[in-house]
Amino acid sequence: MLTVSVHYTLGELKVKFALLCMQFSIAIMTSCALYNTRTHLCRHLAHKYLSRTYSTQPSLNEVVIVSAVRTPMGSFRGSLSTVPATKLGSIAIKGAIENAGIPVEEVKEVYMGNVLQAGEGQAPTRQALLGAGESCITQINKHNNMHLLFRNLLCNFSKKSVCDLCYLPHVGLPLCTPATTINKVCASGMKSIMMAAQSLMCGHQDVMVAGGMESMSQVPYVMAREAPPYGGVKIEDLIVKDGLTDVYNKFHMGSCAENTAKNSGISREEQDAFAINSYSRSKAAWESGVLAKEVVPVSIPQKGKPDIVVKEDEEYRKVDFSKVPKLKAVFQKENGTVTAANASTLNDGAAALVLMTTDAAKRLNITPLAKIVAFADAAVAPIDFPIAPAFAVPKVLKAAGVKKEDIAMWEINEAFSVVVLANIKMLDIDPNKVNINGGAVSLGHPIGMSGARIVGHMVHNLKSGQYGLAGICNGGGGASAVLIQKY
């Protein structure tokens, strides 16, 4: 006799009865029949119960940007060539935290994009955050090993503004702050923002710094470890090998740009005109003070002389418009369209943003500058990397429920002039809303930094309530895109 508790619902009784029937039938059913019965029952239970269990999506934290700064961008082997990428990153991180007006110990973790890491030493982002200010860590050589031991313990177990042993102030980030370096080629800086946003959205952290850094001037040459049995040694430039070469087709990114120009029907004249416009917009933006508000200066110590202070981008002044149409194509001799003038340049620089949850902003009494609405990645054939943003952007718009007509400001990274022209064409967007203050062609393209720079630029230049969408392509056939809304 089956005794049933009065607490069972009718649905639960049906399930129990079905289970009893299945147990009873095991002895008399064939294995095939038993399998079919079990499959049917599992499907029934999954539909009736599992779907109900996961019918509501967990709520995510809203993520806001409270600070966004960058260093000036130096030309290749130019004004910032003596400053390592990690030091540029330190300056950007320190500037972002200071502009946010929060205690350094509030920063729970740091992500920085960095592509060309050879020769930089272990954990570049860790170096950058520990160098972000004059703290006890910069004084370690003045103290004995015992101080270092206790300093680590104190930093991990008590987040104080002054060291308990030497009473030096913590202006840099505490030793207990984790760091991660992100490499998604040119999208590295933007991807660091996206990954930080994910961590904040799910509640893993509540305050983070994200950005990107690169010193292309300091990238070394390399040679194979094996000694050649005969003949000379081949030396390779890691800027080209790790940063600018399509590993699948064995040619330069510029050849991919030529392919896009051909497929999209974009002429040399269109690319040259775009480049000239980029330089003109950058010049106007600097002269009007638009770009100055996002830049923190870089001081370069000199022996026996005052420090050299770099506080302005270097590249946009280095142009002679009369020579632009006369330059030879670099990557394709016959009917080539991509030149040194209408492509981006090699540069040095860093950018950093402070992101936090809205709850953290309220707790710290911080007024946000913008909120992160949505973000997405996309991938295409490696040779088609220039048009990859056109596949990431629709994903972002769909996720946010926003139309392209709602976007007040577009930032599409100018890896090559043809990149922006092709994406404008594919997305059918207003060119007057794209890169209104210039871009990488005229300002520079430190590849690990650029994705963070264009997001930060939108933060400063959108008006309240406006949407801004940034997209950046990356080698290997990828792209990332981020949608923000100004507070």
Q: Kindly provide the radius of gyration, computed on alpha-carbon positions and rounded to a whole number of angstroms.
A: 27 Å
Strand content: 15-25%
Topology order in helix (H) and strand (E) letters: HHEEHEHHEHEEEHEEHHEEEHEHEHHHEE
Q: Mean of residue pLDDT?
A: 88
Largest sheet: 10 strands, mixed
Please provide the count of β strands.
16
Q: How many H/I helices?
A: 14
Principal-axis shape: globular
Q: Give the terminus-to-terminus CA distance.
A: 68 Å
Q: What is the percent of helical residues? A: 25-40%
| Secondary-structure class | alpha+beta
Q: Segments where pLDDT lies below 50 for 5+ residues?
A: 1-6, 46-55, 135-146, 156-171
Explain this structure to me?
About 35% of the residues lie in helices and about 20% in strands. The protein starts with 9 loop residues before the first helix and ends with a strand. Helix 1 packs antiparallel against helix 2 and helix 3 packs across helix 4. With about 475 residues, the protein is of the alpha+beta class. Strands 1, 2, 3, 4, 5, 12, 13, 14, 15 and 16 form a ten-stranded mixed sheet that branches. The chain has a two-stranded antiparallel ribbon with strand order 6-7. It has a two-stranded antiparallel ribbon with strand order 8-9. Strand 10 and strand 11 form a beta hairpin. The chain contains 14 helices and 16 strands.
